[in-house]
């Protein structure tokens, strides 16, 4: 009975106590329109994000620092386990080389899209939260943009502070990274 009463009280208080933080309620010094993407805005600095959103940002930038996401890391671990159990030291050493190369030279491009979904927002979003379903639609939209190199280059410059790299250099970097990532994933799926 007490649980049900507490549940009803929480249900009744939530709309009163929670107020979404939308674009019209944000200090205009903390945001700016996103050039080249009408209807979208960005925080002037990641630290200007509300805390709930910033925590997701930190999680995603950790992926960028490692150059690997959880799925790929787990795939590597499965392949390591299988190679270790089979006693195949050549395969094990090959996997070690691949993992080191992944950590040093492969950038998970998918992570950039998810960071964009956090950093770039429209007028309808609640800025205090990270709505996975809504942001999945934003990621699909970002991927459908005609000029991916410009979009990703702007994001890379903002996230990793690489300075004034040229668009062709960034495009080559992204293509090379994607080819390596896809090749390694193919090898890993056949190894496990």
Describe the structure.
With 192 residues, the protein is mostly helical. It has one domain. Helices cover 67% and strands 4% of the residues. The longest helix has 25 residues, at 167-191. The chain contains 8 helices and 3 strands, in the order H-E-E-H-H-H-H-E-H-H-H. It is flat and about 60 Å long. A 3-stranded antiparallel sheet has the order 1-2-3.
Task: Note the topology.
Blueprint lengths: L1 H16 L13 E3 L7 E3 L7 H16 L3 H17 L2 H17 L3 H11 E2 L10 H13 L3 H13 L6 H25 L1
Antiparallel strand pairs: 1-2, 2-3
Quick overview of this protein structure:
With 192 residues, the protein is mainly alpha-helical. The chain contains eight helices and three strands, in the order αββααααβααα. A three-stranded antiparallel β-sheet has the order 1-2-3.
List the uncertain runs. Answer: none
Helix-strand makeup class: mainly alpha
Mean pLDDT comes to 79
Task: Report the span from N to C terminus.
Answer: 52 Å
Question: What are its keywords?
Answer:
8 helices, about 190 residues, mainly alpha, 3-stranded antiparallel sheet
């Amino acid at each position: 009975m007490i649980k049900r009463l507490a549940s009803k009280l929480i249900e009744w208080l939530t709309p009163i106590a929670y107020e979404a933080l939308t674009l019209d309620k944000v200090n205009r010094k903390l945001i700016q329109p996103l050039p080249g993407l009408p209807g979208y805005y960005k925080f002037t600095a990641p630290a200007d994000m509300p805390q709930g959103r910033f925590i997701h940002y930190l999680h995603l930038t950790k992926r960028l620092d490692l150059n690997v996401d959880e799925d790929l890391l787990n795939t590597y671990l499965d392949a390591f386990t299988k190679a270790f159990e089979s006693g195949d030291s050549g395969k094990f050493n090959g996997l070690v080389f691949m993992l080191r190369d992944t950590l040093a030279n492969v950038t998970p491009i998918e992570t950039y899209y998810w960071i964009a979904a956090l950093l770039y927002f429209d007028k309808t979003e609640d800025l205090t939260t990270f709505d996975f379903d809504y942001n999945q639609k934003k990621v699909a939209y970002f991927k459908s943009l005609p000029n991916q190199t410009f979009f990703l280059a702007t994001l890379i410059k903002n996230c990793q502070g690489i300075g004034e790299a040229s668009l062709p250099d960034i495009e080559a970097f992204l293509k090379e990274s994607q080819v390596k990532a896809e090749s390694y994933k193919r090898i890993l799926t056949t190894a496990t």
